[in-house]
Amino acid sequence: MNFIHATNEFCCNRIVKSQCINPSETDIYSFLNVFFDRLQNVILMDAWDSFLEKQDFNFFPGCSYKYLGSGVYCFEEIDKCVAKRYDEEKPVLLKIEVKNTISKLDLNKTEEMETLKKKFEIHMVNYISNLEEESEQLIYGYFAEIISYNITKLLKGDKDGVPFSLGLSLDLLNYEKIYDIIFFKFPKREANYVTIKEISVITNLSKC
Fold first, then answer.
1. Is 31 in a helix, a strand, or coil?
2. pLDDT (tens digit, 9 = 90+) per residue, 155-166?
3. pTM (global) more than 0.85
């Protein structure tokens, strides 16, 4: 099984030579600190219902959280043409070969997305029940609602669903310990996004 990763010439040569590729990482705690600060302002202004409906993307801190959480991002080999035009600053394509015996999660399957949503909601209920401060329970409750709301929108193919709601839920649930590779085609994208969570499944890295 092969995947395609878009990069530049320098990085491609370095990766091939070292046979090592570093996963994209996001500091979830720093992200959530900013997220919660902005969420607090929405709550104080009593504008929650309006915000939830409008989903103003500018509210989120830089929209910088990875769509599928941490991992090596790539496309399936069949979508090589999509990878080539993905980013004009990354015109070089790297082929990633992986083991055949891997654990995969396809979030395009309704039952898998519904399972993720349910696990996230249960996780948040349990987490919130252990918080002592009422103010913390409130903010985490709103956070759980907005992420669950957006997972539902993505599940329905709604283009207004905030993409990184998946990445946040996957990382909070430590899905990298369960699945080697995760797939999902976001409503505004041409092809599946793929993230390799467990880099030990990679067997070879070469320039296309």
1. helix
2. 999 887 888 889
3. yes
